[in-house]
Amino acid sequence: INPMAIPIKLKKRWDVYPSLQDVLAATQNLSVSPFGLTEEGLQDFRGIKLEYSHDKYYYDYFELIITGMQNCDFSGSKWLNFLLVSKEHKNPSTIENCVFNEAFFDKSLAGKMIFKNCSFDDCTIKDHTFYGILQSCSFKGIRKKNTKLFFNCDLIKDCLFEGKMRKINFWGSPLEDCVFKGTLYDCSFDGLEMRSEKWKKGYVTPEEVDNRFDRIDFSQAEVMMSSFADCYLDRVKPSPNNCLVHCTDAFFDKLCELVEAKASDDEKIMRYAKSFYRPHPRRPYAFAHPKDFTNPKEPESFVFAQRLYDLVCEAAEATNYRIK
């Protein structure tokens, strides 16, 4: 039980507004709370229900057009098929200094927006893609069971992502000055934005990528089985629990040589070394972790994974291609 959990009375007080229309009327389209301000001076929308129900076979959303929103507290709110949208997609509205902690979003939240200084800590997010800009936002308490989250942003700057991140896809959202803490398992990052065709010539230079991974701090995160397409990771700060390696020919030759010398008893090690660490123009860097390729049901997989990892580290160190 979360000791910070939002009191039930803050949710119950909204029961006097039974329908979504009643809620929107009482709040003048989420511009003012009938319950005044919180102690921090934010509009008190804590525990609000923004639920738009429809026939389950008919996919539909309620879209509330906003010109902007600031200084609101939506902690513990519940959203269903409800989206905040800008008047014009080309000119996104700004949501600033808002708290969405412990909120429950089911196919809800917002269209293309600029989020500044907002927190989404301990949220449940079911199937949402962020568009637009995220600046100085916090996503703490991410849990693998209740987060189906994607980012297709123009910029993600100065944000914190913390928790058990699983299958989170950042696409080619440009990341700058961000911090990751916890574990990233089977997450995806791309150096190019989604509609880019730069990759078609088979190789993209560091100057051409959309997402240059500038000042990204993974020093308190463990990256496992995650994918980095067209990503240059030389400016990343990795955790000592990962081996971040520049997959050059020299590194790969050294790795094969070490595998031959030290692990010829297990052909699987060579097979995996060649599959995952061979230089490839669209995968210039790789994050290795001692728990990659492990299966909890197969204890021997942990021995295999550790051996492979140790050889990757040794080859990276020997050739000076380990990023630290």
Can you tell me about this structure?
The chain has about 325 residues and is of the alpha/beta class. Helix content is about 20%, strand content about 35%. The chain has five helices and 24 strands. The strands form six sheets. Strands 2, 4, 6, 8, 9, 11, 12, 14 and 16 form a nine-stranded parallel β-sheet that branches. The protein has a five-stranded parallel β-sheet with strand order 13-15-17-19-21, with no helix packed on it. A three-stranded parallel β-sheet has the order 3-7-10, with no helix packed on it. Helix 3 (about 250-260) runs antiparallel to helix 4 and helix 4 packs across helix 5.
Helix content: 10-25%
Low-pLDDT sequence parts: none
Distance between the termini: 38 Å
The count of β-strands is 24
* Oligomeric nature of the chains: single chain
Which structural category fits the helices and strands? alpha/beta
Helices, by number, come to 5
Mean pLDDT score:
94
How is the biggest beta sheet arranged?
Answer: 9 strands, parallel
